[in-house]
Amino acid sequence: MISPSLSPHSDSAPGEGRTDERRTVVVLGAGPAGLTVGNILRAASVDCVVLETESRQFIETRPRAGVIEEWAVRELDRRGLAGHLPQRAELHSACEFRFAGERHRFPYAELTDRHHYVYPQPLLVTDLVREYADVRGGDIRFGVRDVTLHDLDTDRPTVSYRCPDTGERRLLRCDFIAGCDGARGVSRDAIPEQRRRTARQDDGIGWLALLAEVPPSTDCVLFGVHPRGFAGQMPRSPEVTRFYLQCPPGDDPANWPHERVWTELRERLGAAGAPPLTEGWLIEKRVLDMHHYVVEPLAHGRLFLAGDAGHLVAPIAAKGMNLALHDAFLLGDALASYVTTGDGTGLDGYSDACLRRVWDYQEFSQWLSDIYHGVASGDPFRAGTTLARLRRLFSSPAAAAAFAEQYLGTAAAY
Description:
It is a single chain. The longest helix has 24 residues, at 350-373. The model is unreliable at 4-11 (pLDDT under 50). The chain has an 8-stranded mixed beta sheet. The protein contains 13 helices and 21 strands. Helix 1 packs parallel to helix 6 (121-135). It has helices spanning 32-43, 56-61, 70-78, 85-88, 108-112, 121-135, 187-190, 258-268, 320-341, 345-348, 350-373, 380-393, 397-408, and strands spanning 18-22, 25-28, 48-51, 67-69, 90-92, 95-99, 102-106, 116-118, 139-141, 145-150, 158-162, 169-173, 176-179, 197-212, 221-225, 231-235, 241-247, 282-296, 299-300, 303-305, 311-312.
């Protein structure tokens, strides 16, 4: 339980050439989670600083997916954080499955009156960092090095880092740390192993992630369920399209030259009556291994994990950024409430509240992975049951409604 009383700080941080500062909250990471937490704190007049290891240009241009659920867009807009999203995002109302040589359109907006927004993560990050740093005057420090967390078992933790300009070691004394620094950050590993449990799942599947300078061949997301492997098309903009191809985990992108990529995409996304794929220049090729993890609890002392720092869901169901935003709304509100009114209820319940949705989305991702990859498993029984599930989506209103609810995240709206 978070206690409102603060005890004397025990300084165990390194002291060489150190400059000390005081902040109420230190936010690690300037992704969607960290910037959302920072903006919520600024709106509540809570003193905070955001530390980011990369440059501003890098975070504003780093390629990332961009499917945002409607509840998240509404919440961003309510808080004045939607930026250009309402005007520039593409509104999606359906997806399309292709299997057994046929096209099957799934009009989820007709079933739920809800949509998906396609707004690439770099654009959202650009909006959020502008709001935090340029509009609300928030303190954000880019290019920091050697970030280390100290005294997490006290109620006065500290964060030290090396200034990229001077090489000087700096120490931030604080009341809380928001660990929003992603899968490769330092926050998660700062929690002692005996104080956390990490559940992991490796699907044994790879996806070749591609960006092509071509317009989408259809107006919606495509899922190709094929004996040769899964394929997907995700519109990013009128000029750029994201494609995925199932491949062996750890595969070398060099094994996928231009002609092989387009041959496989044509085969796996082919269906009767489907328009031909528009082919063009591939501007990105990388292999993603489908794996997942969840850290429990998402809190240790005055450190709270959010987004990929605490849980990773493979891009199978496009849930990662939505989970990060959900965490950030809860954490930002809970920190603001505690600092401004002394109410620690939100912080005490933060981990449990986040994990309920995390596990719900993980379960859906696993279910969808079985759908995507079952036909290509080499197991005739699994292939048969996969096709049965797919056919049920288009023949059973109850099955369609359940899928739409999970796909859109409407059951667990913020």
